[in-house]
Write a structure and sequence with these properties.
Elements (H helix, E strand, L loop, with lengths): L5 E8 L2 E8 L4 H8 L18 E4 L2 E4 L12 E3 L13 H9 L8 H14 L5 H7 L11 H17 L4
Length: about 170
């Protein structure tokens, strides 16, 4: 029998409030996946190195495997599931990844998509070098990054053309 204290929390994820009962040490990545059923956030290294678990917390890329769920209360969290347009169409970064073949196995893709979304919001017209810097903290073992960098530049172009707010 566990004596660990359980906390009732409310998390705003993708614009929707969710309630969960979690121990204080529950990681945000685990709360998203196991308590809320949002399995788009992937857990890779569990040390904050690979970037697969990256979500946006108040618009900033955050390694969800390094943040406790109780610490996210009161913040706006955006996961990969929240990047599509309200009508269900792909958002600019998702569309660019599809057009530029920016993924292979797809395991790292959710972390790249959220990272790039924040990066383009900060720099809406990145150069190729800036695109490389934007994704430098995320690891991919399949692609070699060339198409990911192309997708960053294409996503910025799509967002500018469509007037999309990222």
């Amino acid at each position: 029998m566990s004596t660990e204290q359980i906390h009732e929390i409310r998390l705003n994820v993708n614009g929707v409030d969710h309630e969960a009962a979690v121990p204080a040490r529950r990681l945000l990545s685990d709360a998203l996946r196991h308590d809320l059923g949002l399995t788009g956030t992937h857990v890779g290294c569990e040390h904050g190195v690979c970037g697969a678990c990256t979500v946006l917390v108040d618009g900033q890329p955050t390694r969800s495997c390094l943040m406790f769920a109780v610490s996210a209360v009161g913040s706006e969290i955006t996961t990969v599931e929240g990047l599509a347009r309200p009508d269900g169409e792909l958002g600019p970064v998702q569309q660019a990844f599809r057009e530029c073949h920016g993924l292979q196995c797809g395991f790292c893709t959710p972390g790249f998509l959220t990272t790039i979304t924040a990066g383009i919001a900060e720099n809406p017209d990145p150069t190729e070098e800036e695109a490389r810097d934007m994704v430098a903290g995320n690891l991919c073992r399949c692609t070699g990054y060339q198409n990911i960098v192309k997708a960053v530049c294409r996503a910025a172009e799509i967002a500018r053309e469509g007037g999309d707010a990222l």
